[in-house]
Amino acid sequence: MSLAERFSLAGKAAIVTGAAGLLGRYHCRALVEAGATVVATDLDAGACETLAHELGDSVLAIAADVSDPVSVRALADAVLTQTGRVDVLVNNAAINDRFENPSSALELSRFENYPLELWKRSLDVNVTGTFLCCQVIGAEMARSGRGSIINVASTYAIVAPDQSLYQDPDGHQRFYKSAVYPTTKGAVLALTRFLATYWAQAGVRVNALSPGGVENSQDEFFVREYARRTPLNRMAIPSDFMGGLIFLASDASAYMTGANLVVDGGFTVW
């Protein structure tokens, strides 16, 4: 098999959760360009349809709630009916909590005050959603004897947030990065390692992809400070993760499971 053939996903079917989000759209695009039939999944059916229209006939739009076992089962059944197979699962759906009201963001984001409701909501999507998709869709992969699961984690699964990044130019704290995102993404890494060993003999590989911070209309000061503490001296752009995703999805990484591919410009090195 040539190197190009190892990276090819021609004839394979892939599911991307959280497909309508910033990174999800690029994950779908990467898989399409590698030759896969892609199922774009998100809560918003209209957004999935729009993405499918943008990316072409190789994309199917199927809305689902990853935190609902009935919805995930329906997703799996629909994919198997329409494609006859599932080769790649990208667990990308996640909540990265934000506080809409700047006047209350500082107090609510303090660990001592962080709302239990928001904690549970992130656990439901980031951890339970990944668990359910692996349990239902990964089990189908195991029964077929093949598959690659990619769980999207984060640099904050590896290192603690640098709270100074969330200060204004005068040094005043605008808000705190909460504990729930690092906690849930750390759990994703633990689940990845568990499943890598659990399904190794079934032919299913399970790896994580940990992206660095992505530039997305943040304040100029934040972008500059994030870049300053990153060895490559910039934030990521969404396309920076396309190569890593295809590597993990394809036979190019056939001898790789239980690993965490960190694509962060060196952010976690320091």
What do we call the CATH homologous superfamily? NAD(P)-binding Rossmann-like Domain
Q: How much helix, percentage-wise, in residues?
A: 40-55%
Radius of gyration: 19 Å
Count of DSSP H/I helices: 9
Contiguous low-pLDDT stretches (5 residues minimum) are none
Distance between the termini: 39 Å
Report strand order across the widest sheet: 3-2-1-4-5-6-7
| Helix/strand order | HEHEHEHEHHEHEHHE
- Please name the CATH topology: Rossmann fold
**Mean pLDDT score, rounded?**
97
Largest sheet: 7 strands, parallel
Task: Summarize the topology.
Elements lengths: L2 H5 L5 E5 L4 H12 L3 E5 L3 H11 L3 E3 L7 H15 L4 E4 L10 H8 L6 H29 L2 E6 L27 H19 L5 E8 L8 H9 L13 H8 L10 E4 L7
Parallel strand pairs: 1-2, 1-4, 2-3, 4-5, 5-6, 6-7
Helix pairs in contact: 2-9, 4-6, 6-7
What does this structure look like?
The longest helix is centred in the middle third of the chain and has 29 residues, at 116-144. 43% of the residues lie in helices and 13% in strands. The termini are far apart. β1 (13-17), α2 and β2 (37-41) form a beta-alpha-beta unit. The protein is globular. It contains nine helices and seven strands. α2 (22-33) packs across α9 (242-249). It is an alpha/beta fold and 270 residues long. The protein has a single domain (3-263), classed as Rossmann fold, CATH 3.40.50. A seven-stranded parallel beta sheet has the order 3-2-1-4-5-6-7, with helices on both faces.
Short description:
By secondary structure, this protein is α/β, with parallel strands linked by helices. The chain has nine helices and seven strands.
